[in-house]
Amino acid sequence: MKSIIGLINSNDLVKGAIVVIITAILTAILKGLQTQTIQFTWLYFAPIVYSALTAGIAYILKNWLSNSEGKFLKAEPKPNEVSKV
């Protein structure tokens, strides 16, 4: 079940975590290809972590501001309205 506007359900959090993981992996691959090396230091991994967390937070915010039909910044439909999808 999709969450209503202003609420986040556990499914949204799981999908947000998946976005974080995928973003971290892709950012690490891109950074590795650009620098042609991998360093195990915070200075190297900080931009990867920040990018991944930012993408996850953006996904959660998008879901928080979308109604149960997935429409961004739209009010919840009335129960008697038929969805036009």
Global morphology: rod-shaped
The level of helicity is 55-70%
- Summing up helix and strand content along with how strands pair, one would put the structural category as mainly alpha
The unreliable regions are none
Strand % is: under 5%
Number of helices: 2
pLDDT averaged over residues: 87
Number of strands: 0
Radius of gyration: 18 Å
Which features would summarize this protein structure in a list?
85 residues; rod-shaped; 2 helices; mainly alpha
Summarize the structure.
This protein is mainly α and 85 residues long.
Written description of the protein model:
This protein has 85 residues and is an all-alpha fold. It has a domain at 10-64. It has helices at 10-35, 42-64.
What secondary-structure arrangement, pairings included, does this model have?
Elements: H1 10-35, H2 42-64
Helix pairs in contact: 1-2
